Amino acid sequence: MSSKKAMKQAQKQAYAKHKSNITNNRFSKNKKKLINKKKKD
Which of 1, 18, 22, 32 is the most exposed place for a label (fewest CB within 10 A)? Predict the structure, then answer.
């Protein structure tokens, strides 16, 4: 594999990881809010 190809692949993987982190963080924040609301009730 050429270094150019490897770099492209690494960038794609990093971006995918970053994107999934964003969605996971959004969901976990919402879950935390829901849990806190339930405890207050």
Answer: 1
What is the C-alpha separation between 17 and 12, in angstroms, rounded? 9
By C-alpha distance, which of 32, 35, 13, 34 is closest to 24?
32
d(CA 14, CA 4): 15
- pTM of whole model > 0.70? no
CA-to-CA distance for 10 and 30, rounded, in angstroms? 31
**Digit-coded pLDDT (tens) for 1-41:** 689 999 999 999 998 888 888 777 777 776 666 666 666 55
